[in-house]
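Supplementary material to the annual report.
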Amino acid sequence: MQPIIQAEHVSFSYGEQAILKDINLTINPGEIIGLIGKNGAGKTTLLNLLLGVRAKKSGHLTLFDQVPGGPLTKRNIGSMLQGDLPIRGVTVVELLTMAVTHYPTALQPKQLMADLALTELSQQQLTTLSGGQLRRVTFALALIGNPKLLFLDEPTVGMDTNAQQAFWARVKALKAQGKTVIITSHYLPEIEQVADRILLLQDGRFIFQGTLAELQRQYQQVEISFQTSLALTTFEALAGVTAVSQINQVVQMSSTDGDKTLRALVPYLSHLQQVTINRESLATIFVHLTKEV
Amino acid sequence: MKPFLAQLKFDGRRLILRNFSFQFFSILMPAGFYLLFTKVMVSGTVPVSFSLQYMASMIVYSGTINALFGIALILMHDREKGLLQWYQLTPSGVQPYYLSVGFWSMVMNGIAIVVLGMLAVVVNHVSLTLGQWFSVAGVALVGQIPTLLMGVAISFLNRPETLSIVSNLITFPMAIVSGLWWPMSMLPSWLQPIGKLMPTYFVNNWLGAVATHATLKTTNVIGVSAWIGVLLVLVIFETRQLLKRGDGVVKA
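Predicted assembly:
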């Protein structure tokens, strides 16, 4: 399979300040990628390099086997970036009708508006729309060129719950059509739900690239708590346990290997009450990882 | 060609048909001033030469208002709200957008010429040949370039509030000192030499000379050309700085 994006040893700097360091990346058709990282980690710069609005300082970077930024790559890319185009004096349908002419293989605005539940808003001026409605229009604008690769930056900001669900259903449908989607978001539960792979950027380097399951296997802590009359020392040496604390009769344990720790707890089960087991979310893993590095 | 035509249609609606600011500040206000100073607040009949010169002044004033308030704000708004960025990422790029905005800013000035010209003819009974009208339109459109470049230059400012202050600080003092509102002889003597360096002064004189059959002074043409040169350099410099800073590119 021919990768859509290929980066080898890519770096970028502003003067002396290195922003991206030795980025290696391969993204295949039909993948949903979650690009995450703290503010200042280099996500924006990486996005700028991929979109072709900035040029790498060194390394090799291709999109669709082309240098980013050329007309051939631009016709295959759709982007839903921050900023919602609340342009004065323009209706939704007028914006999309103009946008169609900028792409050689564009979708029909009428059909696209129907697909994204925008038909009722089509004659409304952009400045009269709510934040969530504008976000949906921006999504339509990203899709209008019928792109093979879609960049979504904080896509659901301002959307209500129903709109968010419809949005992610649409993203999954795009994946089913073979489209590649790169999502940048601080709403990690959403990334957790849809991303096939997660790219975690920290200080200009990828500190993790892989599936959520791999991330969880590698870094996830399991939190186990229960009430017991047994001494705390009973649990300190159990397999996988990294920390144990007790408040009144409630013991709380952190484990890097939940399965092993639970098996080790079996002999004590008759002494334990109100057992709860929580797996860390992507958000919690993210906080741990970005603190540690 | 298709993106450009679609862009023209798109911008025509938002820049002219649905743009109340343009209709009021760039057309109705100069038209109102024209009527006020050539018909309402004067006793007796005003000389034809004054009717023509004031028409020229109001055409220049309309173009200045349009460039420094209208076009500057639209360019800033489109950049700030992400429209420019969207064009940048399409296969057609930003060219259709800039060509369209340039085209419509000329049309906007053309509308002012038509409205003010009609008022001069209908209300003040001035008479110009078709050739003179074309000359007036040509000079007015070329003369708009310096203020248009000023509008582009200030559109690079970071905040709409700052833009509004800067537009006010440039437009009205420049209009007054360059004699667009009332004759320069009414200004203090120390201010008059400053007024005579303004781009609007050169355009106003050049346009007035064309309209009133007066002798053309080459200094006016040189003045306009010099301003175009200086402002073009400034706009190119600002654009490079903008790209260097990374503004106008993706913000995530």
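The CA atoms of residues 71 and 83 of chain B lie 15 Å apart.
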